[in-house]
Amino acid sequence: MLAPRRLLCLASRTRRSRSFATITSGPLNLPHVIKPSLAEQQQRKLSPRNLEAAVRHMHRDGLVVVEDAVPLNDLDHLNRKMVQDARTLQARGKDGPFNYNQGNLQQDAPPVAEYFSTSVFANPIATQITSHVLGPRPKWTFCSGNAAMPPLPGADPQRQPVHSDADFAHPAHPFALVINVPLITMTPDNGSTELWLGTHNLAGEDSSGIAAQEGAHGERTSGRIRPELLVRRAAVRAPCQPTVRKGSIVVRDLRLWHAGMPNLTAGEVRIMLAMIHFAPWYRNRMRLELGEDVRPVLEREDLGLEVPVDWVGREEVLGRYLNRGFGNSYDFDQEA
């Protein structure tokens, strides 16, 4: 069994110690990867067999990866702009929207038409999966992302504590799924996320929901999983830090334990988008804020989503999209 002192180390200065997966024995528990056929890619729809696999692994593992789901050109165009924005946010230091440490930044994409593609932000394969887990026409009320930043000269790379994004009293069954879209291939070197598969549906009064967490909702470090539970879980199913290919989507249960890992590269910014789909019955109050010129893009086709939006003038939205809060300041709870 792992010693608690080793499990609690949040700073990762060497590749050898950057994730719990590297200090636990036994095989890695990697996420299931679906590889759509060319016909599925062209139709932007999984076959019944692959859809069944996606739903099965969502329930079992709390996460599934689908490769070749997003056109690479759409990612490249957005990544160039968001890397520039990430450097702007990094320069703000302690005044920036960082999550747990300054190496992981909360970052919105520019919400205007030239950077908004439904293949990226409202991916039909992602929606196909979420609507079969949560119910038809999930509500899309959150659109942001995070950047794993290479450390500034003289700074030590840091990892996040293992945590859950559902840092409030929440249902014990699926109610919210996160769609992550990496803009480049994510690797352990550039800060791919550490995953604790299966932790979205742990049983027991002390190991599920907010009973397993430390920190109050709204604090910068809320949602941290209690150390003794990490030791217990690692002995049952080790965490992993997978490589996720560019062009993939990752669908994750909001309740799943995970941790942002340090970017150990010399200068490669790793950006991963995050859209949250809530069950149609879930009474979340959030709304998207998008530029008016995105409206025709969203209305061009039936996305299979309910999308509450506050439409804002282009110059106004460009003037404030980089002034959002850090991740734990968002309210993913529902009305009573």
Q: How would you characterize this protein structure?
A:
The chain is of the alpha+beta class and about 325 residues long. It has a single domain, classed as Jelly Rolls, CATH 2.60.120. The chain is about 25% helix and about 20% strand. It is built from 9 helices and 14 strands. It has helices spanning about 5, 40-45, 50-60, 70-90, 120, 125-135, 225-235, 295-300, 315-320; strands at about 35, 65, 100, 100-105, 140-150, 175-180, 195, 215, 225, 250-255, 255-260, 270-280, 290, 310. The strands form 4 sheets. An 8-stranded mixed β-sheet has the order 1-2-10-6-12-5-4-3. Strand 3 and strand 4 form a beta hairpin. Helix 3 packs across helix 6 (about 125-135). The longest helix is centred in the first third of the chain and has 19 residues, at about 70-90. The radius of gyration is 19 Å and the shape is globular. The termini are far apart. About 45% of the residues are buried. Mean pLDDT is about 90; it is low at about 1-25.
Features:
single chain, 336 residues, Phytanoyl-CoA dioxygenase, Phytyl_CoA_dOase-like, Jelly Rolls, two-stranded antiparallel ribbon, alpha+beta, 9 helices, Fungal_Metabolite_Diox, 19% strand, disordered N terminus
CATH class placement = Mainly Beta
Strand content: 15-25%
CATH H-level superfamily:
q2cbj1_9rhob like domain
- As residue ranges, the low-confidence spans are 1-27
Number of strands: 14
Strand order of the largest sheet: 1-2-10-6-12-5-4-3
Average pLDDT, all residues: 90
Number of domains: 1
Query: Roughly how much helix do the residues carry, as a percent range?
Result: 10-25%
How far apart are the first and last residues' alpha carbons, in Å?
A: 42 Å
CATH architecture: Sandwich
* Number of distinct helices: 9
Structural class, by secondary structure, is: alpha+beta
Order of SSEs, N→C?
Answer: HEHHEHEEHHEEEEEHEEEEHEH
Rg over CA atoms, rounded to whole Å, is: 19 Å
Q: Describe the global form.
A: globular
Assembly classification: single chain
Let me know the largest β-sheet.
8 strands, mixed
Question: Which fold name corresponds to the CATH topology?
Answer: Jelly Rolls
InterPro entries: Fungal_Metabolite_Diox (IPR051961), Phytyl_CoA_dOase-like (IPR008775)
Protein name: Phytanoyl-CoA dioxygenase
